[in-house]
Specification:
The chain has helices at about 15-30, 45-55, 65-80, 95-100, 120-130, 145-155, 210-220, 235-240, 250-260, 265-285, 315-325, 360-365, 380-395; strands at about 60-65, 85-90, 105-110, 135-140, 160-165, 170-175, 175, 185-190, 200-205, 300, 305-310, 330-335, 370. It has about 400 residues and is α/β, with parallel strands linked by helices. The longest helix is centred in the C-terminal third of the chain and has 20 residues, at about 265-285. The protein is globular, with a radius of gyration of 21 Å.
């Protein structure tokens, strides 16, 4: 009888008991709002901002309600407004173009290469042709492009770099943390990211005016002084009346949940990467499947796994996914013409209007498959998953 897998791909580990105890204290006190403090008290949200800024190695940090809100606020804080052109890699999730659109910007989508990274030639060509002064770089599914070349192009064309690090919290490129290359960077603590608070996010920056605009824009009113990692008062005096209030404040409950998980992140990264390595080894030997080689100096976080079903063929992929699912292995596909769950292609974001075709991106996504790797999976689970997928892939090579 064929092996079945019986664990859900969406089950996360329990929230630490220390967070549960702290949340209970906050609930008993009733002061959930970040600005609802008594004399001498520092809110959980402000403590979190200081701790995350220190962990990330950034001067300033703002905690907000979601990674998507962090993207919108970062764009506005950096100067994006109605009609502003914003470069963005075409392989990403819908909140990224959604944030550009919500900030009034117009995305200029850039092709990806065969390793799911930004195509540098297309980036350079579109930077020159469009004159765009902003680039929202999404490290999609944790794949980090050549940041030396990215930053060089941004410097050459005087482009403000906004990093979307929703999938790279804790990752590094040549020893530098993801998020410390951009002029302003965004992170997510949504359930399926590296810290789980249901929803939540951060933005970090070393630019004092960007930081002040972001804090005011998040909905601080004139209570910005209580935040945990902010520039001095004179910076706020310059910008405090310029930013629209987006009411994106993180509450103390979610801040407490995040604070308890931050000290565990480095160990969890190691655990994810052990599981990723087992999957990588198993998929590398699977017939019809292609694993992308990752550069040695890309210290990624293996919380999801991508492969190309190149030998199966795009026409057979829907059937292949159904066969895997029937055996308990849930795989998503980025090549479908219609969006499914969280997967979508640039040509399904109709609100952006007519976009120039991106044939290279379409070709690469046509065989791109994606799988979550929750820490509730054991190392043996990962071996079993790789075996099941290899079995099903082999079916298409025997016909």
């Amino acid at each position: 009888m064929a092996k079945q897998f019986d664990k859900p791909f969406t089950q996360q580990e329990p929230i630490p008991e220390s967070a549960i105890a702290r949340v209970a204290d906050i609930l008993r006190g009733g002061r959930l709002h970040r600005y609802n403090t008594v004399s001498g008290e520092t809110s959980e949200a402000s403590l979190l901002e200081a701790e995350y800024a220190d962990w990330q190695g950034a001067s300033y940090c703002l905690a907000v309600t979601s990674g998507g809100q962090a993207l919108q606020i970062a764009l506005r804080a950096a100067g994006v407004g109605p009609g502003t052109q914003v470069l963005a890699n075409a392989y990403t999730l819908a909140p990224v173009p959604g944030a550009i659109f919500a900030a009034g910007g117009k995305p200029v989508l850039v092709e990806i290469d065969d390793n799911w990274h930004t195509d540098m030639d297309d980036l350079r060509a579109k930077a020159e042709k469009s004159g765009a002064k902003f680039f929202m770089l999404s490290h999609m599914r944790g794949h980090i492009a050549d940041m030396d070349e990215i930053t060089a192009i941004c410097e050459e064309f005087d482009i403000t770099l906004i990093e979307d690090c929703a999938h790279t919290m804790g990752a590094r490129w040549k020893g530098t943390r993801s998020g410390n290359f951009g002029d302003i960077s965004c992170f997510s603590t949504q359930t399926y990211k590296h810290i789980n608070s249901g929803e939540g996010g951060f933005l970090t920056t070393n630019n004092p005016e960007f930081a002040a605009r972001a804090v005011v824009g998040s909905g601080s009113y004139m209570l910005y002084g209580s935040h945990g990692a902010i520039p001095p008062e004179e910076v706020f005096q310059k910008v405090r009346l310029e930013s629209p209030n987006c009411s994106a404040r993180l509450d103390n409950l979610r801040a407490a949940i995040i604070r308890a998980q931050l000290p565990l992140l480095e160990e969890n990264i190691h655990r994810w990467n052990v599981r990723y390595g087992i999957l990588e080894s198993g998929f590398r030997s699977a017939p019809g499947l292609e694993v992308v080689e990752r550069k040695q100096h890309e210290e990624f976080v293996g919380s999801s796994f991508q492969f190309k079903a190149s030998g199966i063929g795009a026409d057979n992929i829907p059937d292949f996914l159904k066969r895997c699912l029937a055996r308990g292995v849930e795989i998503k596909w980025f090549g479908g013409e219609e969006p499914v769950a969280f997967t979508s292609r640039y040509d399904s974001w109709a609100y952006l209007g007519k976009m120039d075709p991106l044939p290279q991106t379409i070709r690469i996504l046509s065989t791109t498959c994606d799988m979550r790797v929750p820490l509730t999976f054991s190392e043996q689970d990962c071996q079993d998953i790789a075996g099941i997928v290899a079995d099903e892939a082999a079916m298409y090579l025997r016909t």
